[in-house]
Input
Amino acid sequence: MDVWAVTLDTTAVGELEDLYQQGLLLLDEESKVHLKKYYHRIDSVRGLIGRFLPRLLLKERGVPVESVRFAKTQAGKPYITTELDIPVGYNITHDNGVIAMAFSSGSSLYPDPPAYRIGVDVMLLQLPKRDTFSGFVEIFRDQLTDLERKILLPHAPAPSISKHEELRRFYLIWTLKEAYTKALGLGMGFDFSRIEYDVPNDVVRIDGQVPRGWEFTRFKLINPVRSINAEEYVGVTARFVGEDAAPECKVRVEEAPSWLRVFDAKEFLTTTIAKLSV
Output
């Protein structure tokens, strides 16, 4: 599994306008119409980057731009329909200033086409304005398990946790739930309270049982925006690797993973437009 992530400064999206207009010219008509419907330019730019990520991946694997085709499952999960010598499964996510794609191919891809069971989610560590952390957690109470609520709001004699750790734990729990359901291709049609992530022990349970055959990996991203010191994001990837996998389902943690490739938005758009134009 690999992850490509693109970071951008949402307060300076106007600086990408020329690249956005050039990029539109390289998309199919359906994608152009979809992106032009957004009211805010930031949403259109994120959408353009999200469409470019799999196209760049296929271009780097020798697939001509004019041969690239996509479709969606009945539940709306995109997948590649282009005939490939080596199949590719992927999933896209975005939040605030990060757009990311997880993908797998070849022998590391479990053969369950067309969309494959691969999912990814990223989220910015931030507390909504005018909200307390306990009030924020309460909003999602029905979608959390009893253990998750105890992990997020520990009571004495359990030691207290820092405000940063509170947010980190919540968003790791939430991104794992999102990544798993996206891998299934179900999205919000799945009851999130069925998924439990014991963050301190990095253990996942589905309906109270360890999910055999699943692999989860968590990671951190820093977006060096100009308006503040930096934005910190957490992300989780989920993929089905087969029933022969180890029965223990521990979430993998890597501080500086070689499989994570991060691009600046301007650099990414410039490079991608140049590659897709030839």
About this structure: Residues 3 and 102 are 4 Å apart (CA to CA). The mean pLDDT is 92. DSSP finds seven helices and twelve strands in the chain.
